Amino acid sequence: MSPPVSDLPDTFTTRDARARGVHPRDLYRWRDEGLVVELSRGVFRGAGAPAATYPDFLAISYRAPRAVICCVSAAAAYDLTDELPGAVQFAVPSRDRPPRIVYPPTEVFRFDAATFEIGLSAIEAAPGEPVRIYDPARTVVDLMRLRHRLGEPLAHAALHRYLRRPDARPTELLRTAARLDVLGPMRTALDVASAR
């Protein structure tokens, strides 16, 4: 006999449930009865758990533990853009095989393993459940680095919003930009932004 759903953590995987003695038949019955919500294939959250601020980020972190939320998804989380991406954008080291995730929709970026951990931070996707995300400075630099793919207006708008934050650190932006080989464009954009 399976333990009650209340004995499981707020967010858990099929593997976690099996390890605690839950039969797959019971797990899917719980889902069908609305006792748990399936965030992604094999990732569940108890219906009675506190609301998740970023349930899609939570799903990604369980499906791809090394992944880091990045680019427009990170910018939206930090209120650096009003744009909402149609897919959760996350990065994996360039040598890693990106996971195949159908739901939630995702867009995978492959970042150089040597610089992958620069600006690594975390936010709570749900109470007590942190997910990996690049900090605001790294996010702005990545948008500048990928401006030809994601849009130059987006990169510049994120930079302007970043500079209006009370915790803005332009020197950190330049230091991160230098490490990610985009110092020239970042310095130019910063000069233009400062001249306004």
From TrEMBL:
Superkingdom is: Bacteria
Q: Name one Pfam family in it.
A: AbiEi_4
Q: Which InterPro entries match?
A: AbiEi_N
The AbiEi antitoxin N-terminal domain covers 7-45
In Swiss-Prot or TrEMBL terms, this protein is called AbiEi antitoxin N-terminal domain-containing protein
Q: Which organism is it from?
A: Jiangella anatolica
Give the source lineage, highest ranks first: Bacteria, Bacillati, Actinomycetota, Actinomycetes, Jiangellales
